[in-house]
Known about the structure:
By secondary structure, this protein is of the alpha+beta class.
Amino acid sequence: MDGHLHERVAADLRRRISSGDLPVGAAVPSESQLCEQWGASRGPIRQALATLRAEGLIGGGRGKPPVVRSHTMPQPFETFLSFSRWAERTGHTPGQRTVEIARRPATAEAADALSVDEGAPVVQLLRLRLLDGVPAMVERTTFVWSVGRLLFDFDCDQGSVFAYLSGRGVDLSRARHVIDAIVAGETDAALLAVSPGSALLRERRRTSSADGVPVEYSDDRYRPDLVSFTIDNSQQAHPALLRGSPDDLLQGAQP
């Protein structure tokens, strides 16, 4: 049971931090308090707190009591492909509103990303993504026709597009991400309820099958007061995302 308990403890603390129940600067419940609350040993409690430290949500440790450092929810690499999965993992209720879905000729940018001819038929999807009913991200995704046409039989307001496509047998094995900053134009500002010119986090993603055939290209724009990104790597494994200087793009490649 302890193997999953630390995830539940971490998710509950994330929820309390994001809701303001534990504001920035507030003390996090002590290990002994959390052990009593969850009826747990110190092992999973310490693992949960270590997870939140790695995500930048809390500080302290090494004899210092943990305190809340940030209320923005990190999005790890493994959940990049599914906003819904990430939201649920962090204790939020995901939502979406489809603004438009249509068959269109591929633009030059989409054609290059998807390795199709410019003007070839593709499916473009524009959605507003919500966290607990609050606008959090504008999603602009272009699918190759053979994959995108499946979405005309799916209500994109009802859940994860990637979960639906995976269930239909679409191979979504690999992804490359580029993360940078951009200012909100009129459309993004109106959808996200921010002022035009506000800074947004942008993630551009190309997803392909295991053998490298492109499936989709997406340009997603996040409110930085609600979402941040984390990068995990080790000397033993090729990093999923590479961090550069503040002036550089954050780039990621799935080997």
